[in-house]
Write a structure and sequence with these properties.
alpha/beta, Beta Polymerase, domain 2, two-stranded parallel ribbon, 9 helices, 45% helix, globular
Length: 182
């Protein structure tokens, strides 16, 4: 499975495409939807499972000129009005470094590259009618169903965080073929 296949998983899912179109309509700068939105769909496809219910739809955008957290709340309200029932989580990555204790991020993709697992550091956006995919640390772990800490989580504390996420989110129960390299 390569990048085209991953994009194909997203494009063949009408629900995913509705979410992408609704996100595009928000007009947010430098926006991407990542984490479980992509990872779970790919792992479900590889495992022959129906699409997992959305726990949240992580929309990461980057706007250095609008750092007020209320802007995220307004974007979430607009998204919810467009697609009720979707668990939107919209965050401006231009300020998220403060919560994470990092140096300031330079873009949404810089922030996404620091998410906990390499297979989570993937995202899609819609440009016109085309789905664009980014995989900050490559696709090998995502399509190989490997859970490995991202470089930002390569510390003992980071690895412990990844282990907790695997347990709390029940990944091994959902996807028996996962390999943990933590």
């Amino acid at each position: 499975m390569g990048a085209r296949d991953v994009v194909g998983v997203i494009e063949s899912d009408p629900g995913a495409m509705r979410v992408l179109r609704a996100a595009a309509d928000l007009g947010l700068p430098d926006w991407w939807i990542g984490a479980g939105f992509v990872r779970n769909r790919v792992w479900d496809a590889i495992s022959g499972l129906p699409v997992s219910p959305e726990r949240d739809v992580d929309v990461a955008y980057f706007d250095r000129d609008e750092l007020d957290p209320r802007a995220d709340a307004r974007a979430e309200a607009s998204a919810l009005a467009a697609l009720p029932g979707v668990p939107w989580e919209i965050r401006n990555q231009a300020r998220m470094h403060l919560r994470n204790g990092d140096e300031p991020y330079t873009s949404a993709l810089d922030a996404i590259s620091r998410w906990p697992e390499t297979a989570t550091c993937v995202a899609v956006t819609l440009r016109g009618d085309a789905v664009r995919l980014v995989s900050c640390h490559g696709l090998t772990d995502l399509v190989g169903m490997v859970v490995r800490p991202s470089p930002a989580m390569a510390t003992a504390t980071g690895r412990a965080t990844v282990r907790r996420r695997v347990e709390v989110k029940g990944w091994l129960h959902r996807w028996a073929g996962l390999r943990l390299e933590i």
